[in-house]
Amino acid sequence: MTESPNPDGARARELDSSAVFHSWSTQGGRDAIAIAGGLGSTVWDHDGRRYLDFASQLVNVNIGHQHPAVVEAITRQAATLATVAPNHANLVRGEAAQRILDLAGPAFNRVFFTNGGADAVENAIRMARLVTGRDTVLSAYRSYHGNTGAAIVATGDWRRIPNRFARGHVHFFGPYLYRSEFWAGSPEEESQRALRHLERVIEAEGPSTIAAILIEAIPGSSGVLVPPPGYLRGVRELASRHGILLVIDEVMSGFGRAGEWFAHRADFGDGRESVVPDLVTFAKGSNSGYVPAGGVIVSEAVTAAFTDTVFPGGLTYSGHPLAMAAIVATIDAMKAEGIVEHAATIGAEHLGPGLRALAEAHPVIGEVRGMGVFWAVEFVDDPDARTPVSAAFMAALGAALRERGFLPLIVENRIHVAPPCVVTPAEVARGLALLDEAVTAVEQR
Ligand code: PMP
């Protein structure tokens, strides 16, 4: 706090606790920073205290805060036509859909727009059930798919909300080499065993009852679990063999986060673009959250299934013009400025090596994993037994980081280091130095 705090900061914090019913993650009381502004990878409070936003808010501000071209596009659209119903055609909606299709590849021919990630997942699940005439959706225990009806049930045991009305969801374990409960060994072996496990689950449930396998390309909230070689491709093959649709959730991993437009198109040991899903969900990075948006990218085969039958889905704000203008401007700016390639380079040359060097220096860091600007750092008490550090350790670490002006996402015994794709090497170096300092300070306590 400065000598004479800005009254807006106090007012923001007061109203935040007296008038806002918070999301689950902060209901247990909080001491929130009131964010007043931002630019690029930095945000500041009402007193001008600056923070490196290495969480990109909720891993969505991929293009950085206040990108001028995106702000300008939203402003221009607001002055022209601020809202339009989905039952009318609208140029900017079509432009946004076409740009997304161009990025997704030739297998896809339509985009169904939603307001965010959870409703994208809801609609993808509904499409899969209607197309296959089957009910069951398989998804990973270690996953996050959103906090609405089917999406939260698909999310698995991690943060599961008890829902006795939830039917038709079955979970399986995906690969996680660092904490491999049921299989161990090399990444290749982990991949093969995880695929055998999934195959057993499919057989046990009955393949003809399964509508979809829903997976994140890189499970994000559950720990940035980059898939081992052959896993995604193996899941694709299992799905195809049994007439099951493959839904890949790119809500967090897409639009530059993993140094790729879509993480599932990266080379995970089978060559680039070796996995073609039937449906792809997206949201966050598509317009960096400047205006809420999400959607489902639909393959030709699924589109064709709705030629003679109506898909009973639709939202008042589907393809909202402000959100669409932000998507068009975001994709254009990311292409023009090489932002996705930049994110890949930052991961390969700065953030990845820097975090690994920190792990070498601090035994309390058990593992570092990720790609692009999408990383997790796991903290353990005992590097051999890999026992997670206590909640008190993580709270102290979070406080030490915040004091130093560094804001990552903190989940369980991990910090997720996910700066905007536009982060500079100098900002990465500064962030790593602050992280080093904070870990040292907490270790010494
Ligand atoms: N899917 C994934 C992979 C996510 O990470 C998230 C959000 N963290 C969602 C879906 C849900 O998105 P939203 O919060 O926009 O509903």
TrEMBL record:
Family per similarity comment: Belongs to the class-III pyridoxal-phosphate-dependent aminotransferase family.
GO molecular function: pyridoxal phosphate binding; transaminase activity
Cellular component annotations (GO), alphabetically ordered: cytosol
The keyword Transmembrane helix appears for this protein: no
Pfam families for this protein: Aminotran_3
Keyword Zinc recorded: no
Coiled-coil ranges from the UniProt annotation: none
Record protein name field: Taurine--2-oxoglutarate transaminase
Keywords noted in UniProt: Pyridoxal phosphate
PANTHER family per UniProt: AMINOTRANSFERASE, AMINOTRANSFERASE CLASS-III
Domain of life: Bacteria
Native organism taxonomy: Bacteria, Bacillati, Actinomycetota, Actinomycetes, Micrococcales
